[in-house]
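During the second year of the project, the team shifted from modelling isolated chains to modelling whole assemblies. The rationale, set out in the original proposal, was that interfaces cannot be judged from single-chain predictions alone. As a representative example for this report, we include one of the complexes processed in the last quarter. Its constituent sequences, exactly as entered into the pipeline, are reproduced here:
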Amino acid sequence: MVTLVEVARHAGVSASTVSYVLSGKRPISDLTRRRVRDSIEQLGYQPHAGARALASSRSRIIALMVPLRTDMYVPVMLEIAVAVATAARAHGYDVLLLTGEEGPAALRRVTGSGLAEAVILMDVQLDDERLPVLRAAGPPAVLVGLPGDPSGLSCVDLDFAAAGALCVEHLAGLGHREIAVIGEAPGVYARHTGFAERTLRGLRDRAAELGAGLLHRPCEGGHDAVAGVLARVFDERPGVSAFVVQNETAVEPLLALLRRTGRAVPEDVSVVAVCPEPVAAQASVPLTSVAIPAQELGRRAVERLITELSARPGDGGPEVGGPRAGGPRGGRPGDDGAGAGASPAPGVELLTPVLTVRDSSGPAPASRGGVRN
Amino acid sequence: MVTLVEVARHAGVSASTVSYVLSGKRPISDLTRRRVRDSIEQLGYQPHAGARALASSRSRIIALMVPLRTDMYVPVMLEIAVAVATAARAHGYDVLLLTGEEGPAALRRVTGSGLAEAVILMDVQLDDERLPVLRAAGPPAVLVGLPGDPSGLSCVDLDFAAAGALCVEHLAGLGHREIAVIGEAPGVYARHTGFAERTLRGLRDRAAELGAGLLHRPCEGGHDAVAGVLARVFDERPGVSAFVVQNETAVEPLLALLRRTGRAVPEDVSVVAVCPEPVAAQASVPLTSVAIPAQELGRRAVERLITELSARPGDGGPEVGGPRAGGPRGGRPGDDGAGAGASPAPGVELLTPVLTVRDSSGPAPASRGGVRN
DNA sequence: CTGAAAGCGCTAACAG
DNA sequence: CTGTTAGCGCTTTCAG
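Output from the structure prediction step:
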């Protein structure tokens, strides 16, 4: 293996000069720089990551914790993960993949050992057991998602409450008075997954404001489950003329079942989805939808982290973690990306949802009851 | 940060003793071990990853390269990635997430810098540009997938050729004589993705052997694309009574379209899928399918790698990579998991496909032509 | 069974 | 602008 000393020898300079050429942390004459670069090139030198981490106490690695569970939003998760990896690389960082399995212990392990400098958490629960580790002078961290109490934490997420509100507004604007919500699997709500509950709140609040009826039903994926839920919905509220779906695996079954029961979309019933663009666009009826901007979320999470990391003081010395309590790190005020209502908390960045109208939503049918069950 | 020396002091032993208690590389008296363990516990000691990597030249990190592209098999990819991470942890390794974006350079970077000891590659092309890096005394590597020339490489994959054959056998056994294949997106074949081509070969060969007609059509995902393909298929071969689908995003559209055009599944047409179990089981008609064992693939890839890694000699010294050319590393003969035909090459492990009969396949209709188009 | 000591390859003061 | 030097924290001979 080629070492920095060998490069130095080859270039006829000292080791530190090579190091400084690499880091750019002090001025180097053009001639020297050129010579060093040539030697690096010729010898095929690659700095040893471990040695670097040891000497600088910066590993240039971000840990990304993805849910082990795979009962929802799989494509979104992968897309976020890939976006995180890509964005991190653009800043010279690598990404360590952690599964939710090990829980808080994994966070302690990778940060405590200096393996990772910072962490990004996906699939955050309202009351997430990993958060205490991050709050108490923990490592720089960004959550993709919003916990119940985001104080002292950096979070990035879609404003799901606003997304829910947007769906209701759109449908109410088209004259729909009875709306049914096909939600995530019951387990998702049981776990108090933030985005699901916030969407629901947005839906309910706006429905109440606009005087529309709202019926929410969690729903397992798959055709049979959707069939059951759908039957019960129409049984309970025959007047339902619009659906909001937040469950990728329910989208096609829902459309198939509506079709099969003689309900035309959007003539008889309207459907609005909260899902990634491709799912909405490729559905058997192109769906009016609020997009889940997976790439954007991943990218922003990384960018926040990088900001925090480079904002850290000279560092290098032991006993880091001084002025950290109280406010979230790196919260740039005024950049909270808006959202519904006032900025929820410092350090929280909620992306404003966008509703795209496609073919699945239209005016509420003037008359009711002419549809067979 | 607590260091090994502090632990040693606290326990009243030397630094090397602490190290040996941790590594178990030499006998330690029970009393000493207990004392050291207590100190570690009390001080909350965590060995520094970088220092370890530097001193031992083993990072305990495996790099996993996932495709950047997201035009196929997304859930499978995530499932494999998670399985890899889980299995790696079980062996004391962490996983570094690389995207295909950087290509061969990323492999050189992470292995050349000692960041990763070994690599796992997903989404391998028949003629993959990353392979040369791995062959020439490169790092230990395992491919999930099968390239055109696997010589000198360790590979794990489903035996897609056998999977294709299995589908045809099942359908032919039910009396179907004209089979249509709804394949992956055209781009997948254009890139010469191994699994797609091997499946196709398996389908064609067995169809030829059994005297069945086979029509293959690549297909973009989504409802409209499937509709187009389907129309052309029936136009070209009105006698088609069975479909093999290898494209997750085409499954539901296909079922929806068959239904809409008055073709009952499985009474009028049979459908067999090559896809993950959940997709098959949750489809609007539970699908007879050949499973893609994502977790198993991830797990096996890691296990192979671990075997190779621990089989390495004393190591630690510079200039590794001696006896490597010729045979793939760690190929345990007789453990190639069988497959269709003779073992394809040493170092290649093809998992035997399993076909599960569900509700979507049945006897070929006795008469043809009674179906409207 | 245990210690002492020499690095692993790099960074970052400290000196010019 | 460049060189010298002292570690970073751990592993692993070499000596007992």
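Residues 13-17, 20, 26-29, 32, 51, 53-57, 114, 316 of chain A lie near DNA strand D (CB under 10 Å from a C1'). The radius of gyration of chain A is 26 Å.
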